[in-house]
Each structure stands twice: as C-alpha cells, then as structure tokens.
Amino acid sequence: GENVEQHPSTLSVQEGDSAVIKCTYSDSASNYFPWYKQELGKRPQLIIDIRSNVGEKKDQRIAVTLNKTAKHFSLHITETQPEDSAVYFCAARMDTGRRALTFGSGTRLQVQP
Amino acid sequence: DTGVTQSPTHLIKTRGQQVTLRCSPISGHKSVSWYQQVLGQGPQFIFQYYEKEERGRGNFPDRFSARQFPNYSSELNVNALLLGDSALYLCASSFRTGQYNEQFFGPGTRLTVL
Questions:
Q1: Chain A residues in contact with B40 (beta carbon < 8 A)
Q2: B28-65: per-residue pLDDT in tens?
Q3: Residue A92 to residue A113: CA distance in whole angstroms
Q4: Residue A2's pLDDT band (boundaries 50, 70, 90)?
Q5: What residues of chain B lie within 8 A of the CB of A45, using their CB?
Q6: Closest CA to B7 of B69, B76, B67
Q7: Which of B59, B99, B106 sits opposite A93 (nearest CB)?
Q8: How far is B88 from chain A (nearest CA, A)?
C-alpha cells in the first residue's frame, strides 16, 4: 500500500521567516495531495491541496509544489506568524481502490515571536 | 450549517471492554471515513462507507467494525479493547468518495483504555 514519509518532525522558525515541510510518497498511482493543519486539541483542517496534473499551487502565504517524477511534494509557508504554530500533516490519495487518505507522521511547527 | 459531529468527546474503558463511537456527517454528505490517530502520529485509515456500503478497510483487526445508517450517520465499534487502542478516533465526511472530494474532519473522540 501507499506510504508517506514527512520531514522534519519538528521545525522552529522566527516570525517572518519561511517554513518548508517535505513529504515523499511511494505509490505512483497517488494523484491527490492535501495538507492539513491541526492545532492542539482541534480537528485537522485542510489548508491547501494539489492534484497530480499541477506542479505548484499558491494561496496567499501558503504554496505547495509537486514533483511527480521524484514522488515528493512540499509545503511552503512564507512570512510566518505565531498563529501558524500547529502540527501539519501531508497526505496522499489514489484514484483507484479505496481512495482513503494516507497521512505522513506530522511536523510540529513553532513560530517564535 | 454545522460541521461533522462526534460523540462522545472522551471515553475511558478498561481492557476487554467494548466501545461504540458515533459520527454525524455534514448535511448532504454521503460518505463517512474513520481514522485512528495515536498521539504523535498521523491519522490512520480504518473504514470508509458510502451510501451505507463499506467501500474500504484499512489494516485493522476484525475487532474493529463499523456501519452507516440510512441518514448517513455512522458508528465505529471496537471489541475486546487493548491498551494500544488508546487514541483519538476521527470521523471525516465528504459529499462522495471521489478522489478530489475534500474530507471534513470531526473533533474526534478521545478513547483511553486502562
């Protein structure tokens, strides 16, 4: 089955700096890659997603890039703010089969004011 | 418009007991998925239901079972609880099961097995 690896497990940046989180996936059949933000004690919430026919997608301070050949995708947050502090999860989903999300292990982002 | 709701919020059980967790999807959503999130890890897929039929099952033992009702709400049952079943159980709903259908998560049920 699909396996998603996520790095780093923790990331600390100064307010205003950029943060990058990277994920790799194993199954070339995966073609949908969402990113979720989970604040302490809260539910995961979708912040951005990308389909396999697109190489990059931006939404204000957040962007995601996808390299299908290398089977990796990354989340980029620019001009970080303290409210960006949370755990971020990448995920992958295939077009066939059960279409369940396979999640990475998460990255705890701490933005220091 | 309310989001996905789950009950109970917290639950404490002892080893060997059975538990039932409940989920109500967003109105109009016909698909419900269940995930187990162990502390410090990403959610792991348990089941997916669509129109009351099981559409997918993750790598969980037969002690885990689920069902979906005509109103699209769902229950997750876990029998013969083990200490390792302690986790946050998340329910997610989507309009359909298509690969691009966004999954909306509920707040979860925190299960502690003593």
A1: 105-106
A2: 999 999 999 999 899 999 999 999 999 989 999 999 99
A3: 32
A4: confident
A5: 105
A6: B76
A7: B99
A8: 10
DSSP 8-state class, residue B26: P
B5 touches chain A (CB under 8 A): no
Q: What's the CA gap between B26 and B60, in Å, rounded? A: 26
Distance CA B105, CA B3 (A): 8
Residue among A7, A21, A43, A49 with most chain B CBs within 10 A, to mutate? A43
Question: CA torsion angle for A57, A64, B93, B113 (degrees, to 10)?
Answer: -170
- B43, amino acid identity: P
Residue B97 has pLDDT above 60, yes or no: yes
Sort out which chain B residues have CB atoms less than 8 A from A104's CB and list them. 42
Q: What is the mean pLDDT of residues B69-92?
A: 97
